[in-house]
Amino acid sequence: MARKSAKKTTRQPAPAPVARAVVETRPANPEPRPATLRRTVEKKHTINDIARLANVSKKTVSRVINESPFVREETRTRIAEIIRSTGFTPDPQARGLAFRRSYLIGLVYDNPNAPYVINVQEGALGALRRVGYELVVHPCDRNSPEFLSDIRQLVSRQKLDGMLILPPVSENNALADLLREINCPYIRILSAALDEPQNLVQSMDRQSAAEVAEHLAKLGHTRIAMIIGPPTYRSSQERLEGFSNALADRGLTLAPDYIAEGAYTFESGAACAEMLLSRTPRPTAIFAGNDETAAGVYRTAYLRGLRIPHDLTIIGFDDSPLASRLCPSLTTMRQPIRDMGRLAAEKLISKISRTEGPSQAATTVFPHLVVRESSGRPAT
Length: 380
Prior knowledge:
Blueprint: H1 2-10, H2 17-25, H3 35-42, H4 47-54, H5 58-65, H6 73-86, H7 92-99, E1 104-109, H8 114-129, E2 134-139, H9 147-158, E3 162-165, H10 173-181, E4 186-190, E5 200-203, H11 205-219, E6 224-228, H12 234-249, E7 259-261, H13 266-276, E8 285-288, H14 291-303, E9 313-318, H15 321-325, E10 331-334, H16 337-353, E11 363-365, E12 368-370
Parallel strand pairs: 1-2, 1-3, 3-4, 4-5, 5-11, 6-7, 6-8, 8-9, 9-10
Antiparallel strand pairs: 10-12
Helix pairs in contact: 4-5, 4-6, 8-16, 11-12, 13-14
């Protein structure tokens, strides 16, 4: 009988899921919370609530969320503070329906240089997430017969609002024609002006390579070699022409025997260096297509007993984290890769939202030479 009584007195109605979550996280004898505070915590704010609290229209709140320039700074600050204090986050589905967008941006690449892709991606993500967009990363094979049809299906399947295109895929004019045909805004990251300014973020590879030539000439090098990237890459062509022309302007020659074709990889750098350092006389300086290639040159030089920079000066390109970690540290062209990703994303968002901004202007980045320990005068 006693057991029945105990069971009867302890049975309680099953709590609702939300109430159970609250009970499990409270102490045994919690202090009662004020009703107003409880409502504030439990309520999910909407864009209408933010507009009411800020005493503005819903459209104005939307403009602030999407970083439109057409909002007074005072109003923008007030709305941003209310959004922060209430913890408001836009509903992506409702937002997409309201603006007829998916808030998805594609990033298409076919590039063996993983650090380059990752840095562009991180730069783009930083810009996109500030305005509520997400990135759909899509590796591809630009030489496949189905390449263009695959991209068409990607845009349709994901309902992409726009696309960022990395080199060397960005050098494909047929792809740009396709995206214009299906009304998909795009930005191409390129080393040459192959499109209208509003569709480009351009790096000045030709001018950068010329700066390397000037640096080596000032150090006194005359037997200079170069490891280019794949000849189908526009960046390879731009860097080779810029480098050789700048040497010629200083009375120096980049001999055909001192040019090796790499693949922007460590392995190709090591193999090309083996060939170049077998030449007689051997070069006293090697300009590598990128930092990965330069690291391969380091390995071959080490195996041959050559000292850097006493016996061999090595210059890279990109200024990836690897450059400062090599020993001795690598002189290289610093290319602002993350900034390029950010600028491309900002430019694309401006095009999609049809707002005044960077979309119509030419967007150009200028690499510069970072001189480190791998540069030196040739041994006498």
